[in-house]
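Lab notes, practical 5.
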Amino acid sequence: MNEVESSIYNQGSRPRRWRRILPVAVPVGVALGLLLALRAGRPEPKRRAVDARGAPVRVLKVTPRAAVPRAVGYGVVEAAYEWELVAEVSGRVVKMNEDLRVGQVIERGATLLRIDPQDYKLTEKQRRASLQNVQAQIQQLELQRRSVQANLKIEKQSLALTERELARTRSLFASGSATQADVDSAQRSALTQRSAVQSLENQLRELPASMAGLRAQLQESKVSLEGAQLDVGRTEIVAPFDIRIRELSIQPRELVTAGQTLAVADGIAAAEVPAQLTLGALQSLLVESSTVGGRVRSEGVQTPSALGRQLRNLDIRAVIRIESGGSQASWAGEVTRIGTVNATTRTIGVVVTVGEPLDVVEGSPPPLLLSGMYAEVEFIGQRQGGCLAVPRGAIRAGNQVYVVSEGSRLERREVSIGLRQANFSCVVEGVADGDSVIITDVQPAVQGMLVLPLEDGTATESLLRDLSGEGDAK
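Output from the prediction step:
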């Protein structure tokens, strides 16, 4: 086919192609026209206004209030005085108090048991006889001293006579009236008398030493007798004060030895609870009553004795509680001293003393505060004024709180905390009277975000209970 024929052929085929397209294009065009007409007659949609109220949050209005600092510790009840019944002598137990049993209360002065005293009584008699013997020797020596003194006086008089006789004989010998034999005889008699006097004087000089020896023996005999009498007294063991038997390891007719522990008893006049507190809990009680916000008192280096005096001076009250089977009993206690530091828990023991722990109290069981019980101790300090209290949950990480500022905007503030308690803290710096603190956990908490504050009356009532000391201090 040449170019002319090809051109004629193409021109003839175009009308047939349009005839195939038109049946589809016409309905589509009509549909598009109708759609445009419908949209043109449709009213514009109403735009919803953006909510300008912000996220709802619960708030609590801060105002200065009085707060009661409290702390709770736990410890095991101990007797203020413990006594061990120890045998001081050996022997067989011949008598036991029928109340000498575990758990029994025995009054002061009651005889607990008696060890056979017969051997010790025999020893006492022997020592007494030895004492009497020494006393008799002393009396005999005293009589001997008096006798020697009397004999010495006579012998001295006799010596004076013999010396005069010797002088007279010598005078006669000189005049020729006496012989040399007479002089020698007189001189011999004088020498004999002088020897007798010297012997008696020597006896008098020896008597004081003998008397001193006998008096030393007398003192030794007295001490030995007193020891024997003490041993006789030690055979009877009495209660030194009102006690409650905790342990017993002796039976009637049993043979005991000196130094053996027969029983362990607790004094019932007072009980102690060394309640363990963290240093932070202890510091919360040591606050100045006149300091707004409850700043901790600073007195330099605090020794345990100084802390104990400070707690007593601040009139810290203590309440001991024992729970058993859903029931609770409580006792009023007195803070007496600071105990030891627990090396494991790093807590410090505050010793609370309870008078008359066996008195029945309201709340049962148990009606008695006994050694070995695990007790809760609540310490209640003085009421402090000017506390800007906020719930502990409202204090965020880094000591921050969220406050509703002007225009209902969230403001993050760093605060300084004074008194810290289980359910609230007293803010010293960072918030002021009348500020609304957000207690809702806002996520995310964006600085300046719009919020809708709603005051929480229930949270306020709970905070007031905690401030007054009626809430849960745990």
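Observations recorded by the TA: The longest strand covers residues 327-341. Residues 1-9, 289-301 have pLDDT under 50 and may be disordered.
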